[in-house]
Amino acid sequence: MLQLQAAGATSTDDLHPAEHCLDGNPETFWLSTGLFPQELVLSLPSPTRIVAVHLRCCNVKQMSLQHSTEEMPGGFTELAKSGNLEQRSFVGVWKCIISCRFSVTGWSCPVGAI
């Protein structure tokens, strides 16, 4: 199991903070508020090889998955992009990832079960 932590979110609802997308509970989720795009940044304690990212979303027009190999989240590079999704798996082999950024364009978006 990966030791992810929510390193930041562009917005959040007090009842549905970004940390909810990592708690393993399918009944909880991150809810973004405000204008789009919205972003959620997840960080790992050390460089990690990732082979898949699984998402459950609601009312998402488009999402991109980006990664960073920098110690502090930054300098992101796009790994994958998808549109009109409810459930989506991004599959690949990505090495030395320290942070992942999910950039969402669309309506309200609960993201969970990462």
TrEMBL record:
A Gene Ontology BP annotation from the UniProt entry: intraciliary transport
GO CC entries: cilium; intraciliary transport particle B
Top-level taxon of origin: Eukaryota
Protein's recorded name: Intraflagellar transport protein 25 homolog
Species whose genome carries this gene: Geodia barretti
Source lineage: Eukaryota, Metazoa, Porifera, Demospongiae, Heteroscleromorpha
